[in-house]
Amino acid sequence: MNQTVAVVLSGCGVYDGSEITEAVGVVIALSQAGLRYTFYAPDRAQMHVVDHAHGQESSETRNILSEAARIARGEIRPLAELDAAQHCAIVFPGGFGAAKNLTTFVKDGADAVLYDDVRAAVRPFVQQQKPVVALCAAPLVQGLIARDEGLSGVRITFGSYAEGQTMAAALASWGQSHVETPVDQACVDVAHRFVSAPAYMYGAATPAEVFASCQAAVAALKSLLS
Amino acid sequence: MNQTVAVVLSGCGVYDGSEITEAVGVVIALSQAGLRYTFYAPDRAQMHVVDHAHGQESSETRNILSEAARIARGEIRPLAELDAAQHCAIVFPGGFGAAKNLTTFVKDGADAVLYDDVRAAVRPFVQQQKPVVALCAAPLVQGLIARDEGLSGVRITFGSYAEGQTMAAALASWGQSHVETPVDQACVDVAHRFVSAPAYMYGAATPAEVFASCQAAVAALKSLLS
């Protein structure tokens, strides 16, 4: 418990980066639980930029690390510098950034892969049995690293089948198991030390419910660390 | 209590817009308290854009509304459309955006003014004795509207004198009273129906403490509304 948790962001904003309520919610929950953390993000261009007021793709280019630093108040490091030996767990908040900037899921669907820097960052946690936590759409990272490491039947949630159908189907094709989970609970695979929670996978969730999802994930993480 | 709270954002990121933990924290607290809310932001350019990873001003231009929409998940309206008759209270999260995009404080110090759209939005709340809530640096808006409406001695906090010295001094020059307040409490001027809370005015505050600040402000607001 004297190591910090690595929190990996994918930008700043639900439609092209990290979902902000989830990123902040998980950090408040970590802070309330007495767990220290360090932010990381890939130091490369976002897949694209979406004007969140008008729902339109913009012609801008933005750097994932620079945008994620808005959530982190400047205290963030390039993902390539993440050393698993310095951390007790790794956490991925959700948002489309998980499907656009951490994995190629938006482009490739069930044929998606992890970006190389993401695979390099998360693999040692899986190999060393350190907890891997993910919210909302970010369990895509869990499903892909489980597949890539030859695991099968790992229990992971995208909320309900109705809300997470495309991702749950892909997860099954990668050999893992989707588990329906209410918004205020976490899905815990104790054997594999994977924690996932739905948060805004339930599109009608309130901020209080999303925060409850974050708290459930952090409580499960703390239990695995104790 | 059947009206919603207006939450006014000034961008997305502490150094050129709304402080993200405060914006999310106050919305989680409103949601936990059963208070509905609507987001607003000025539909004009930010004063400037800061790369939060490297602490440098960038040559980009960004629109306050489009950036604030990242926090609001797209559900946000231009500040010019804010009709006080539809709202029971108005809330301003902090961040340098309050000093750069809502007021001219960063440019003008104690000679600062409210931007016209901000003054037009907040004035009816003061005139109709509806609560005005502000966090961190955003009580600048409270101090300026109090001055502009001819009020004096309104009790407002920027945390401690040590942390908020420049703003507390300006507040005094505007005829209002600075009240030292711990991070997990709110400063409430019951007569004027102003609520302020320090949040990240304490630079070393943890996310849990900032969230406690948000909850204290919302509890005070709820008390004023009951």
Any overview of this molecule?
2 copies of one chain form a homodimer. In chain A, helix 7 links the parallel strand 8 and strand 9. Chain A is globular, with a radius of gyration of 16 Å. Chain A has one domain: Class I glutamine amidotransferase (GATase) domain (Rossmann fold, 3-Layer(aba) Sandwich). With 226 residues, chain A is α/β, with parallel strands linked by helices. Chain A has helices at 20-32, 64-72, 97-102, 105-108, 116-127, 139-148, 161-173, 207-225; strands at 4-8, 37-41, 49-51, 56-58, 76-78, 87-92, 132-135, 155-156, 177-178, 187-189, 194-197. Chain A starts with a strand and ends with a helix. Helix content of chain A is 38%, strand content 18%. The first copy, chain A, is built from 8 helices and 11 strands. Chains A and B meet through helix 1, helix 2 and helix 8 of A and helix 1, helix 2 and helix 8 of B.
Descriptive key words:
homodimer, Rossmann fold, two-stranded antiparallel sheet, globular, 11 strands, 38% helix, 226 residues, alpha/beta, 7-stranded mixed beta sheet
Strand arrangement, largest sheet of chain A? 5-2-1-6-7-11-10
Return Rg of chain A in Å.
16 Å
Q: Looking at the chains present, what oligomeric state does this protein adopt?
A: homodimer
Please, how many helices of chain A? 8
CATH homologous superfamily classification of chain A = Class I glutamine amidotransferase (GATase) domain
- One letter per element, helices H and strands E, the order of chain A comes to EHEEEHEEHHHEHEHEEEH
Q: In the CATH scheme, what's the topology name of chain A?
A: Rossmann fold
Distance between the termini of chain A: 8 Å
Q: Flag low-confidence runs of chain A.
A: none
Can you identify the CATH class of chain A? Alpha Beta
The helix/strand class of chain A is alpha/beta
